[in-house]
Amino acid sequence: MDETNGQPALREAQAQPGRRENDEPREAHGQRTLRYEEQPTVDGNSVSQGRSAAPDTESMGRPGDKPGSIPYVPMYMYRPHLRDWPDAALPPGYAIRPFRAGEEADWARIEHAAGEFATPELARNHFDKEFGGRVAEMEERCLFVVDERNVPVGTTTAWYGDWDGRTIGRIHWVAIVPEHQGKKLAKPLLAHALRTLARFHERAYLSTQTTSWKAVGMYLDFGFEPALRLPGCASGWRLAERLLGRRIVTQDGSNGPGSQGRDLRGEP
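^ that's the sequence the OP posted. Answer follows.
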């Protein structure tokens, strides 16, 4: 399979200053947010953007956590193949369909409502900057969750980016509007995005952060592995391990053939 799909490697997009990308799920990278205005930007829902959820994956931290109580550490995750992910059904009254040209304002509305941009205008400006010349690709790769009136209430994009000099798939700009968070939309949306990515790529990655630790748990369940690619990110994975109450084994930064998983303990 041609992983590059004829596309050049994509520079990571920059979102509003001080914000992270998708993971990403804020539902899973698009969740209703606690604002961390001083956070460094890593990928334009994360998280990133791609800013990596429903109450089980949407909320940023534990009940009662105050804004800023969870240190912000940006992290990457990698999926070595695009096979064998959990199936997840949408609840009644929802459907997933492709983005269509002319729906740029809906994308901007969702990303703004999910807390990724301060205003819908800034979100639309970012869309035009990152995707304005790629609307035909967005029609193939961007997904909307729509309600029973066919109104878009969530989105993610099965995009692509550079990973160690190769263009691979990327889960990008995940977001659910607050009114529809907590309705178990994140997992079906992620599953659909992985199916879309599998049409174009053999591997995928996403960016996320410790403040979206519940989304991180979902990504782990969907076969993404931690990757040590940023200075100090091992401390973020140790924090995620404690928050999730599960052991996490990281991969080295390359995730290439022969990369070895390793326990977080003892890493800087």
